Amino acid sequence: MNYRSSASIVLLAISYAVAVWVVLFTARGVGFNSPLMAFCAVCLALGIVVVNSSTIHWSLPKALKPIRVWEASGAAYVLLGVALCGALLRRPPFRYLNPSVYVGTHSANLSKAYANILQAETAHFWALTCTVPLICYEITFQCWHGLGWLILFNVLFNVYPDLHLRRVRAQLESVMVRRARNEKLQTGLRFHG
Prior knowledge:
The chain is an all-alpha fold. It has one domain (2-192). Helix content is 73%, strand content 2%. It has eight helices and two strands; from the N terminus they run βααβαααααα. The chain has helices at residues 6-30, 35-52, 69-73, 75-80, 82-89, 110-130, 132-140, 144-192; strands at 2-3, 56-57. It has a two-stranded antiparallel ribbon. Helix 1 (6-30) packs antiparallel against helix 2 (35-52) and helix 6 (110-130) packs antiparallel against helix 8. The protein is elongated, with a radius of gyration of 20 Å. The model has no long low-confidence stretch (mean pLDDT 86).
């Protein structure tokens, strides 16, 4: 996470403080064990990342950026149901949440789509990270129902979309490598021919 200016730190602090206030206000009304409170917390965490993305360059930790071989094969993702999640995310109304991550059949600018997919993947990672203090609170004070709801909503709104985006990124990387290889081959044929 790179801070562009001190204003970005202030914006992040204000948005996080507002989110904490909303979570505490919601918890006061419905309790920490409520599914509504967990839903609110997960949505607010994603909102913090999205609102601050114009001033803060969020990035994935270096250990999470490369796609592993088992991820590229896709077998584990099929077993986990990520393909089903992806099919759901590609349909309306979910498709309209972030249209910049979709590539058309004749898209020439794959690198822009790749960057948008990486940015969306990063947003889900940091949104999950923003809920860690609440997870620690619920463990500390034994709010087990609330913890269960929070984990469920994090899996549905952050983990599965993140895994889907990693799968798509792996597929897009192989297409980009093939396209670059074909362009290099055609350039060589034109040069020698």
